[in-house]
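JOB MANIFEST
job_type = single_chain_structure
chain_count = 1
residues = 94
[input]
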Amino acid sequence: MKELLSDEMVDASLVERALAWERDGRELVKRVRRDRFAGALAYVNQVGALAESADHHPDIEIRWDTVILRLSTHSAGGLTGMDLDLAEAIDRLG
């Protein structure tokens, strides 16, 4: 199991890595808008490929042109380095 990070460590990492995510309790959350529903689906497929290669999977919600991603290491009960690493990889998608 991965080591849980403190709120302070997560907040500092979000700033240091310039991640476009918000901390919401024990989760990192990102909202992304794409062109229409098809664009949102294409983005989700890109995120899915990253998640599969990392063997770490976000919760994903699609609302027409908006994708909401939530990252947390459920087995650890909160945020770990795995979440920050995947958040960074997802941010590189644009």
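[summary]
The chain is about 45% helix and 20% strand.
Residues 24 and 44 are 21 Å apart (CA to CA).
exit_status = 0
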